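Incident log, structure service

09:12 report received: a user says their structure output differs between two submissions of the same chain.
09:20 pulled the input from the user's history:
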Amino acid sequence: MAEHSLNEHSLIAAYRADLQARLPADLADEVLDGLAEAHDKYLRLGLPPDQAARAAVTELGDPRTITDAFRRADPARQLARTLILSGPAVGGCWAAALTTARAWNWPLPAAIPLLMGLTLAASAALLAAAATTQRYRAGRRAGTAGSLGIALLDTAAITTAILAAPASPWLFTAAACASLARLTHIARTLRRCPISYMW
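09:34 re-ran on a clean worker, output below:
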């Protein structure tokens, strides 16, 4: 973890504050360790403190650019985009299966389709926010929440289809396989998203 002293150069301190406001502590510390090393390097080369601080900040680059790079590479944001792009195909599989099986005649409580519809709408909104926001933490939170919503929806769809004993099992098998593939991808991706990076 990056540390700083009370006599830290004001330019370095300002850079630190800016970056820490944009990124989670773990990610900010990775960058700030490099900043401290660059600053020490320029001091050892004999540059005056002001020039050494400016050279170190220039070497690392603008905090906004660094944050954008982390945001673009964030697994939760990439997952959100993947789910948005694959959503119509998986949804189409389920629509075909449910239509063929006349799912509207299934003896299900009315609250179940309503709850699933609300979950889909909320998840889609969260995924869209994750894919478009310029803020790292907000994108990570929205992407994770939206992905978990889709995972819950896939699990509920598979379970409901099994319990309802559809008349067209091959269509439900195709839809369930699509959902299972999506569930696997969500689980693998979210394992690479440390909870600490959300805060």
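09:41 both user submissions now match this output. Likely a transient worker issue. Closing.
09:42 reviewer note: The mean pLDDT is 87. Residues 74-198 form one domain.
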